[in-house]
């Protein structure tokens, strides 16, 4: 009995450790996002050149994510995550050092590649801990990512307000976040492959299950990217809002998503992944209709809040479903992550293109239509329910001591 209790205690500690890793990962993203204007000025880039360079982030992530599973297989989950999270935190410094477009493209490729590999490794560990615990935890883990992003962006906003050099800001942030990330990694599960287990391929097409699950994630991330990048513009240009109120709308959207993700596991454990996503899709569609028909700032802000509430838990559940869908969780998670990264890349530019040709109202009609896909395709997430709930009655197996 004591062995079983010890094993459960190890898994619970590993859950908190992975949550801390998620927060560190998010803090890097939040820190970078606040200093993009400084990076643009430092490299003397126009808006089009900056957009071209930032596209290399998703390109690097898409190229590297399939490698994460092989790295974890070669070195074990704890050592792999230590190396990948350190690579990710240190890569924060690179964009601030780029003096021109070409070096910034290379820096963003490296930045995206390290982000993608760390993303896959930590999500794969989260899925395994979820399986051992027998209940949903992925929404809360992604909520910690959102919380970390908010903390990182707050620190970055303060640094920008003080006029600090981004090279110094990023160096200090990287040092602190690396120390926090490596400390947290000391307590994650040290999963090792079986002796006869074949390593995953270096590069492989995503399995069919990942493509179906990725479709749901695509719809959610498209709505997220459109809302994050265009909500403030919508309020300012469509409704004549002040800059402060427009910015508050974007902040409110981010806070809504963070809170919903942190609280989302209780909802998923109560109602299941499929019903939760279907209900979330309904809320997102309602939010989209309020945005499209808004004649006042309060209505539009309420619409964006509902949009954030509706899509908040979708991506975590997509990762969970991918991890439970087949024998190679990292490969499936990498496939879903590639699709969602692509959605996040094309959403802002597509919304801008549609708005240029028609109007922002038509652009958010597109977002609302895609939100309908969450309800229509939610059934493909049943593997997340089976993967989590089938383990409830089984005790967590003994796991290696995660302390170094």
Question: Uncertain spans, ≥5 residues at pLDDT below 50?
Answer: 388-404
Number of strands: 0
Strand residue percentage? under 5%
Secondary-structure element order, as H and E?
HHHHHHHHHHHHHHHH
Number of helices: 16
Write down the Rg. 21 Å
What global shape is seen?
Answer: globular
Report the sheet with the most strands, covering strand number, pairing sense and barrel closure.
none
Coarse structural class: mainly alpha
Portion in helices: over 70%
Q: Layout of SSEs?
A:
Blueprint: H1 2-34, H2 36-43, H3 47-75, H4 77-91, H5 94-97, H6 101-133, H7 138-161, H8 166-185, H9 208-239, H10 243-271, H11 273-292, H12 297-311, H13 314-324, H14 329-357, H15 360-377, H16 382-389
Helix pairs in contact: 1-6, 1-7, 1-8, 3-4, 3-6, 3-14, 4-6, 4-8, 6-13, 6-14, 7-10, 7-13, 9-10, 9-12, 9-13, 9-14, 9-15, 10-11, 10-12, 11-12, 11-15, 13-14, 13-16, 14-15
Describe what you observe in this structure.
The protein has 404 residues and is mainly alpha-helical. 81% of the residues lie in helices and 0% in strands. It contains 16 helices and no strands. The chain has helices at residues 2-34, 36-43, 47-75, 77-91, 94-97, 101-133, 138-161, 166-185, 208-239, 243-271, 273-292, 297-311, 314-324, 329-357, 360-377, 382-389. The relative contact order is 0.16. Mean pLDDT is 86; it is low at 388-404.
């Amino acid at each position: 009995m004591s062995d079983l209790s010890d094993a459960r205690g190890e898994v619970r500690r590993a859950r908190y450790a992975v949550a801390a890793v998620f927060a560190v990962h998010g803090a890097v993203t939040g820190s970078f996002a606040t200093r993009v204007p400084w990076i643009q000025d430092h490299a003397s880039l126009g808006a089009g050149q900056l957009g071209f360079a930032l596209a290399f982030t998703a390109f690097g992530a898409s190229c590297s994510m399939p490698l994460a599973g092989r790295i974890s297989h070669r070195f074990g989950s704890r050592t792999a995550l230590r190396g990948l999270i350190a690579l990710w935190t240190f890569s924060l410094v690179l964009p601030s050092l780029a003096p021109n477009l070409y070096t910034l493209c290379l820096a963003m490729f490296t930045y995206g590649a390290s982000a993608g590999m760390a993303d896959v490794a930590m999500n794969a560990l989260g899925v395994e801990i979820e399986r051992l615990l027998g209940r949903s935890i992925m929404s809360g883990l992604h909520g910690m990512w959102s919380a970390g992003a908010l903390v990182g962006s707050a620190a970055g906003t303060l640094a920008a307000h003080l006029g600090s050099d981004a090279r110094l800001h990023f160096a200090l942030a990287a040092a602190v976040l690396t120390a926090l990330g490596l400390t947290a990694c000391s307590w994650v599960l040290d999963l090792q492959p079986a002796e006869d287990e074949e390593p995953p391929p270096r590069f492989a097409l995503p399995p069919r299950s990942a493509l179906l699950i990725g479709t749901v994630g695509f719809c959610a991330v498209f709505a997220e990217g459109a809302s994050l990048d265009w909500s403030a513009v919508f309020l300012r240009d469509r409704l004549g809002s002040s800059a402060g109120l427009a910015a508050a709308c974007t902040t409110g959207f981010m806070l809504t998503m963070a809170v919903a993700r942190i609280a989302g596991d209780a909802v998923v454990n109560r109602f299941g992944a499929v019903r939760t996503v279907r209900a979330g899709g309904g809320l997102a569609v309602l939010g989209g209709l309020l945005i499209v028909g808004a004649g006042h700032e309060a209505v539009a802000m309420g619409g964006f809040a509902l949009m954030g509430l509706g899509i908040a838990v979708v991506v975590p559940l997509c990762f969970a479903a991918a991890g439970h869908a087949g024998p190679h969780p990292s490969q499936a998670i990498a496939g879903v992550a590639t699709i969602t990264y692509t959605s996040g890349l094309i959403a802002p530019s597509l919304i801008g293109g549609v708005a240029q040709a028609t109007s922002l109202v038509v652009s958010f009609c597109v977002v609302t239509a895609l939100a309908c896909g969450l309800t229509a395709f939610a059934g493909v997430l049943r593997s997340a329910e089976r993967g989590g709930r089938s383990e409830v009655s089984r005790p967590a197996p003994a796991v290696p001591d995660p302390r170094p």
